[in-house]
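Changelog-adjacent note: as of this version, every example in the card shows the full chain rather than a window. The one below runs 210 residues end to end.
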Amino acid sequence: MKGKLLALLLTVAMAGSATAAQTSKDNFNSSVDQVFASTFGPTLPPVGYVSFCARNESECRTLGGRGGTLKLTPERFGLLRQVNTLVNTTIKPESDQEQYHRPEWWTYPVNAGDCEDYVLLKKRYLEAFGLPAETLLITVVLDEDGQGHAVLTVHTNAGDYVLDNRREEILRWNETHYQYLKRQSQADPRHWVALTNGSLRNKATIAGGN
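Full-length structure tokens:
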């Protein structure tokens, strides 16, 4: 898998390496205020994720209680950007209802998928390049219209960064204008932690949003 990924990423990197370097430099120089999302204890995982784990047990294996923080270098930031762009441009947005005739079905996309499918594929690619699984956290948010949406949070020493199928830019979580509900626990991906104290903390579906 890694050899194929390298070939694909090289085509993306040729056009975007200079931009990635400048973006990473700008981000590293940003204020550290609120760059890490706060957690508020355990909460329910999304129902689509529970079903995905039942079908793919090895993909939801426990990490043995490890936590960890990714040391973010310009090279790693460039990798995040390249993987985000690669998946965003090769996968066509299509809802679970359109593809599978069901409201929520998490799976690795081949040609098309919705928001959580983009997240699963990005996480798989980044793990293949050696990034620690416990720093790559599936996250559920509400978008600007109050609709459920999934993104990938990367927990780094420079803050929590977000890979999103709706944008090419890699932003910190507090720059996205989303309302953060929950994400995977770093200690065990099958367990989830709340990112809000509000009544939405136990929302367990994403409603098939793209």
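Structural remarks: The chain has five helices and nine strands.
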